[in-house]
Amino acid sequence: MGANRVGEFELLVLLAALRLGPAEAYAVPIVEDIEMRTGRSVRRANVYTTLQRLEGKGLISTWMGEPRAERGGKARRLVTVNPPGVDAVKEAAAEIRAMWGGLETIIGDIA
Amino acid sequence: MGANRVGEFELLVLLAALRLGPAEAYAVPIVEDIEMRTGRSVRRANVYTTLQRLEGKGLISTWMGEPRAERGGKARRLVTVNPPGVDAVKEAAAEIRAMWGGLETIIGDIA
DNA sequence: TGATTAAGATCACAATGTGATCTTAATGTG
DNA sequence: CACATTAAGATCACATTGTGATCTTAATCA
User: Fold this and answer.
1) Cβ neighbours for A67, distance < 8 A, ≥ 6 positions apart
2) Alpha carbon of A64 to those of A23, A53, A78, A103, B65: distances in Å?
3) I want to staple A76 with a disulfide (CB 3.0 to 4.6 A). Which of A65, B50, B73, B81 is the partner?
4) Is A41 near strand D, with its CB below 7 A from some atom of it?
5) Which backbone phi and psi does A56 adopt, to 5 degrees?
6) Do B12 and A99 touch (CB under 8 A)?
7) Is B61 helix (H, G, I), strand (E, B) or coil?
8) Which residues on adjacent β-strands are paired with residue B64?
9) Could you read off the pLDDT of A11-61 as tens digits, one per residue?
10) What is the DSSP letter of A59?
């Protein structure tokens, strides 16, 4: 427990991968998901770096998909979140819940 | 907007300082607050490091309190969260809400 | 054949996280 | 009075994570 704490951006990538699902999770839509939801700008390169680190920790697995018959239809590196990755996400959720508790009145419009 | 993104641990320290309030926020209870709520173990030294960095960014201000007539009653370095610090916390809250939205069914027991 | 497009990849450096270690200033005690 | 004890503050180095610059590859289109 707690052995797999992830960084802030790593968590965003895990969440995007979970939302997209194994058939659709690869760097480009991961970038789009994070950008659209948070409004911040994300480099594809940084997603690759992070995917490599997450895979190194065993939190995700990746594999190359099939090339597609479209312009620029290069094979995609698809992503699936492994059970330890899901655990890390759940632990992050628990931590967030614990730390934000009771602050609504102090900060205002958290909820 | 978005200019003051804080790291994961920096955010935990800001939240603890907000919860404790200016009269009670100094390193020792900040450590206790984070440990009790998250269950993770926190070094006082790391809180000092983080307080220095947060103060460097202008997100908090600190000052030395009065020594107390108790054993080990050394002056405490008290902490107050400045308006930019509150903004950073609100931005973090917004980001969390945006990124976690719609994942309840996928992950299970988030809420 | 060369342009265009979608996608993948490496690298270096910056920012943040974290453990080891030490110091200081107060009171208690033999 | 000297020394122990306690609460608190501080510095440092190193590990981990975040991020921009830059380049490559593989597909179709003109």
Assistant:
1) A73, A74, A75
2) 11, 17, 6, 44, 59
3) A65
4) yes
5) -60, -30
6) yes
7) strand
8) B77
9) 999 999 999 999 999 999 999 999 999 999 999 999 999 999 999 999 999
10) S
Residue B98 vs residues A81, A90, B92, B102: alpha-carbon distances, Å: 20, 17, 10, 9
User: In terms of pLDDT, which residue wins out, A101 or B66?
Assistant: B66
Burial B72-97 (b: 16+ CB within 10 A, else e): eeeebebbebeeebbbbbebbbbbbe
pLDDT digits (tens, 9 = 90+) for B28-52: 999 999 999 999 999 999 999 999 9
Which residue in this structure is represented by tokens 């809420």?
B111
The nucleotide lying nearest B31 (C-alpha to C1') is D8
Biggest alpha carbon distance in chain B?
55
How crowded is residue A57: how many other Cβ atoms within 10 Å of its Cβ?
A: 15
Whole-angstrom Cα distance, residue B68 to residue B74?
Answer: 6
Report residue A70 as tokens: 């479209």
Contact between A24 and A81 under an 8 Å Cβ cutoff? The reply is no
Instruction: Give me the residue label for tokens 């809400």.
Output: B97
What's this model's pTM, rounded to 2 decimal places? 0.94
User: Position B109: which residue type?
Assistant: D
Residue B10 and residue B30 in contact, taking contact as beta carbons nearer than 8 Å:
no
Residue identified by tokens 């440990």 is B35
Instruction: Provide, in whole angstroms, the distance separating residue A49's CA from nucleotide D16's C1'.
Output: 13
Strands A60-64 and A77-81: antiparallel
The C-alpha of B90 sits at a distance from chain A's nearest C-alpha, in angstroms, of 7
Report CA(A74)–C1'(C7) in Å, whole number: 6
